[in-house]
Amino acid sequence: DTGVSQDPRHKITKRGQNVTFRCDPISEHNRLYWYRQTLGQGPEFLTYFQNEAQLEKSRLLSDRFSAERPKGSFSTLEIQRTEQGDSAMYLCASSFARQDTLFPYEQYFGPGTRLTVT
Amino acid sequence: EDKVVQSPLSLVVHEGDTVTLNCSYEVTNFRSLLWYKQEKKAPTFLFMLTSSGIEKKSGRLSSILDKKELFSILNITATQTGDSAVYLCAVPPGRYGNKLVFGAGTILRVKS
Is B85's Cβ below 8 Å from some Cβ in A? Predict the structure, then answer.
């Protein structure tokens, strides 16, 4: 399967614990995005990487959240000191975008990691 | 603030019916609009629209964009139970479109 993959698919944790999610993008894609989706809402942008550089972070991304993409391939999203409000589906997406063009491109999503904080 | 609004929020139809889903947007530096289908997993890409009045078609699904009136519609003809899903509309705002702003989605349920 050459799509975007995410691990784990489900995570149940107690409030105050740290959790880490992993995303493996489509191999030739240079951009990687993290979104969060709660019930009844569309995905909300959290952050994105161009290769290994984190170029934009949403105001939704509090200082308890950190994301990395160390070698420009897979990415991790860590949430420290989880709160019940962090319960959501965390979606990863990837795309290929040329820097020398403004041509629009589509993003392809992974299956998501569903986080439940008890 | 960039905004994407979808209507209706939910819809129940019978197999064989035709449905029209709506998406209106207000974003800076519009370049494209994307439609996704989401079942109980990842959103799957359907269409990307960049030009007004040009219909994109894939099987029983089609979509068109009106850049003057700032909206798009997604049509599904001869609906099947497998079309039951949440349909999401998204726009990448800004000059470089580095993220997607999504609407809340339309929940479609097709009854057999």
Answer: no
The count of other CB atoms within 10 Å of the CB of residue B56 is 18
Q: Do A43 and B102 touch (CB under 8 A)?
A: yes
Backbone phi, then psi, for A62, in 5-degree steps?
A: -70, 175
Quick: pLDDT tens for B25-82.
998 888 889 999 999 878 999 999 988 888 999 999 999 999 888 999 999 999 999 9
User: For residue A77, which phi and psi values (nearest 5 degrees)?
Assistant: -120, 120
Interface subset of A 58-117, CB within 8 angstroms of B? 58, 91, 93, 102, 104-112
Is there a contact between A112 and B41 if contact means CB atoms under 8 Å apart? yes
Listing from the earlier edge strand, what are the strands of the sheet with A19-24? A5-7, A19-24, A75-79, A65-68
**Cβ atoms within 10 Å of B26's Cβ, excluding its own:** 14
